[in-house]
């Protein structure tokens, strides 16, 4: 939204302005549908702490630590809470940037909660998908600086969260990151795909998405899926060093540059959010998809084989 707003300020006249205005108002309508949901989510989760926020107003940035055990899987309530927090950051005058990480050792995020796609009612499915779209629009379209400190596994939706940031540092270790949707029998949505293309390029994305490739941290560095590796103990320090560097850049120039790079990709989804939600519902209701999801869920729940 903020990027759309910045773009709106720059493109004062002509059809581009009208187009952005229409995109913005569609987005606002979709956001207002979520307002009740947000209230429900904050009531239901009043006693749980699904993330921690550590704001350092003096330095001008915050650290947001995902904390929804066991694996930070993204369900409707969690996404709704996150969206509220992202909005708070966006509105903050003191916060220039956010380091996005996880408090769960070895796990950044396991991606979408598969239970939100398996045997769900249409209403819930559409609320879930709308909330996910909103998270991506807020993160990818943010005027703030987002640095992902990827402290562990980051498949599928977890990878999307990190590639929606401006810079990624990943812990060295036996961790995997990538868009592995085909391994679940599903196709990555076009906006996941486009964010990946913008990060690692067309050809690498074409291979990665078809193969459902999960990259090791070294492989991820080699294809620019992440920008830097760090020992786990140094991850946050390195992210803070990087954040100081980004914060030192003149704000308006950086924001306008970011928005000019991301506007087209964002506009594509903003222009067709409802159709995209319908397509998610239609796709996930297919018997073949439900069967694939069931098998994938079973494989996750199988007792792990001993490596000895
Ligand atoms: C047209 C539109 C189509 C729809 C497109 C939607 C796109 C989808 C994007 C997605 O994000 S789908 C989710 C993809 N995620 C994964 O494939 C990751 C699966 N998880 C793992 O590989 C591992 O859990 C892990 C992240 C590597 C962590 O391993 P670890 O050994 O530490 O933990 P586990 O024992 O495997 O898991 C603990 C516990 O959590 C459950 N779980 C794991 N991931 C998910 C998940 N994504 N959703 C729901 N539940 C998950 C796992 O089953 C275990 O449960 P219990 O056995 O303890 O009950």
Automatic annotation (TrEMBL):
Q: Which reaction does it catalyse?
A: (2E)-tetradecenoyl-CoA = (3Z)-tetradecenoyl-CoA; (3Z)-decenoyl-CoA = (2E)-decenoyl-CoA; (3Z)-dodecenoyl-CoA = (2E)-dodecenoyl-CoA; (3Z)-octenoyl-CoA = (2E)-octenoyl-CoA
Where does this protein act, in terms of pathway?
Lipid metabolism; fatty acid beta-oxidation
Which InterPro entries does the record match to this protein?
A: ClpP/crotonase-like_dom_sf, Enoyl-CoA_hyd/isom_CS, Enoyl-CoA_hydra/iso
Q: Does the keyword Flavoprotein apply?
A: no
SUPFAM superfamilies per the record? ClpP/crotonase
Is Membrane there in the keyword field? no
Biological-process GO terms, alphabetical: fatty acid beta-oxidation
Which subcellular locations apply to this protein? Mitochondrion matrix
One annotated GO molecular function? delta(3)-delta(2)-enoyl-CoA isomerase activity
Q: What PROSITE patterns does this protein's entry cite?
A: ENOYL_COA_HYDRATASE
Q: Which Gene3D superfamilies match?
A: 2-enoyl-CoA Hydratase, Chain A, domain 1, 6.10.250.170
| Keywords, alphabetical | Acetylation, Fatty acid metabolism, Isomerase, Lipid metabolism, Mitochondrion, Transit peptide
CC annotations in GO: mitochondrial matrix
Record PANTHER family: ENOYL-COA DELTA ISOMERASE 1, MITOCHONDRIAL, ENOYL-COA HYDRATASE-RELATED
Known partners and oligomeric status: Homotrimer.
Which family would the database say this protein is a member of? Answer: Belongs to the enoyl-CoA hydratase/isomerase family.
Function per UniProt: Key enzyme of fatty acid beta-oxidation. Able to isomerize both 3-cis (3Z) and 3-trans (3E) double bonds into the 2-trans (2E) form in a range of enoyl-CoA species, with a preference for (3Z)-enoyl-CoAs over (3E)-enoyl-CoAs. The catalytic efficiency of this enzyme is not affected by the fatty acyl chain length.
Annotated protein name in UniProt: Enoyl-CoA delta isomerase 1, mitochondrial
Q: Which organism is it from?
A: Brachionus plicatilis (Marine rotifer)
Name the lineage. Answer: Eukaryota, Metazoa, Spiralia, Gnathifera, Rotifera
